Amino acid sequence: MISSDKVARVTAAMPFWLTYILPPLVMLGAVRGGLWVLLPPLATWYLFSALDVALGLNKESADPQTEESRLFWYRLGVMLWAPVQFVTLYALIWYLGHSDHLNGWEKFGVMFGTGVMTGTVGIVYAHELLHQSNRLERNLADWLLAMVLYSHFRSEHLLVHHVWVGTPRDAVTARYNEGFHRYYPRVLRECPASAFRAEAAMLARRKLPWWHRRNPFWKYAALQLAMLALAILLAGWSGLLFFVVQAGVAIWQLELTNYVEHYALTRRHLGDGRYEHVKPHHSWNSAHTATNWLLINLQRHSDHHYKPDRRFPLLQNYEEREAPQLPYGYPIMTMAAMVPPLWRRIMNPKVRAWRKAWYPDIEDWKPYNRASTPMPGRAS
């Protein structure tokens, strides 16, 4: 176990700052055009995956009792990303709207690369921030999510996913044999409605109507409209197109990650709509070093669901006997998910082995495969 003193060192935090290479890479692509526009996806998907091969697995865990005051450099790196992304995004929108040296495909490449940045880093950092209790970090999370038109993710993630993961009520728990191309439109359709119902239910328990000002969906709408309006103000309709395309790429990346994180890992139904508690073996884990730097330990997903408010440098690693392990980091796994036959060939044997190890007494998995086991708890 890594001691608190070692965790607190700035040198220990610096690998997680490698994500700050992305804004200059996106800017470079916009200025130079040509193959330079490929730098952001090449860096995030391939460079970090190559570093995984070179560096191997990191199975060490920090002392979970480390005081928050000793995590300054980690927290700073996450919180600074919001203003850096904001400036980068809108500077690019203005620049592309007033430049004519790029052809259509090059402009699309810049938009795509920007979405890689706002999805791979922006949404992951928003995820870290929205799990914290202080207002500043939650507000930064809301700003980051508004920049990709996915503000409802905060409500859906906190009030639905973490409560009902591994059950039919959680839309983002991918079903066995459900390919990503079927999964994706389903979650795009179901998650916003599920998030709204969860917030409305919370208000109803306080005897307040859904349209009350405390409903965060009003804030979500205002922030997203402001982001869209600023894009139009800076570059007209081309600015709006740029903004929407990068948001679409970012959302696609988020839901690819969601697909990988819990594919076919279901909680046991105990009868009468009751399910077992969430345990480490209900998330796929990855200890690959470099992609955990890129994704601020998001791949230590089992511990995140065990302790949702635990800050990322303190997330614990789990061994094979405690939680199922992915063969590669998220970038490679998400690329595999885009090819369903390849995905099934890699993952279905692992799912079957997981079922045999953890639930050898369950003989009929069809209800779990179809998400047709009873809905848990009261509606949220």
Cα-atom radius of gyration: 21 Å
- Largest beta sheet: strand ordering: 1-2
Strand content: under 5%
Order of helices and strands: HHHHHHHHHHEEHHHHH
Query: Judging from the principal axes of the Cα atoms, what is the shape?
Result: globular
Helical content (DSSP H or I, runs of 4+): 55-70%
Count of discrete domains: 1
Counting H and I runs of at least 4 residues, what is the number of helices? 15
Largest sheet data: 2 strands, antiparallel
Mean pLDDT: 96
InterPro entries: AlkB/XylM (IPR033885), FA_desaturase_dom (IPR005804)
Organism: Salipiger abyssi
Transmembrane segments: 12-31, 37-57, 78-96, 108-126, 220-245
Subcellular location: Cell inner membrane
Short description:
The protein is mainly α and 380 residues long. Helices cover 60% and strands 1% of the residues.
What labels would you give this structure?
single chain; 380 residues; mainly alpha; two-stranded antiparallel sheet; 15 helices; globular; monooxygenase activity
Structure write-up:
With 380 residues, this protein is mainly α. 60% of the residues lie in helices and 1% in strands. It contains 15 helices and two strands. Strand 1 (269-271) and strand 2 (274-275) form a beta hairpin. The longest helix is centred in the middle third of the chain and has 47 residues, at 216-262. The protein starts with a helix and ends in an 11-residue tail after the last helix. Its EC number is 1.14.15.3. It is found in: Cell inner membrane. This is Alkane 1-monooxygenase.
